[in-house]
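Example 3.2
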Amino acid sequence: MNEKPKKLQLKIRKVTLLAVFMILLAACINEQTKQPTTGKPLPYFGEFDIELNNLPDGTQQPDTLYYPIPKFSFVNQDSVYITRENYEGHITLVDFFFTECPTICPIMSAQMARLQDKFMKENPELPIRFLSFSVKPESDTPEKLKAYADKIGADLSRWNFLTGRATDIYDLAQDGFLLTAFPSDTAQGGIFHTDKVTLLDKTMRMRGYYDGTSTSSMDQLFNDAINLSKE
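Structure, written as tokens:
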């Protein structure tokens, strides 16, 4: 007489346990989606040397030593000199732009500002910083940079906009970041420059390049920056 109720109770328990399992699984998936981890370290870019390390068995093992970006010193939007040392110890997102750029710069700046807000909302404790070099410094005065920063909603406690001698900035872009920046009569705005955003680690070594005009590429940068901060 009690066989059917027992089977019904067992079935209810199984359904309840399955529901709990699905809820936990969904929570796990959501957390992984929020901060995915690939398990693979990001690559290094830029100048490097090969060093031979002596092993206990008497053999030698080659080790690649990557160098940080070159030292620099430029004036920011507040007429304060900013150097590489100001960013050491932080994960840094870097782009090259100019305030009167009619093509890719507004898109890149909007993407950088979007990631700034995303970091501040979701990961405010991370040591993330932003750095924008003007590739038309002869017209991008500190005052114009400050107005541009205000326009896009830049948090100037985390983000600097730098100007200086044009040849120094071009050299830094081309020789330091391995990117393109130079005057051009055929380019809109008179400057041909990269659309890439560079990811630097806490020791100022280059760890990735991303399309600054692409939402999906910049979202990948967001995730890579989080993972890089854990190294």
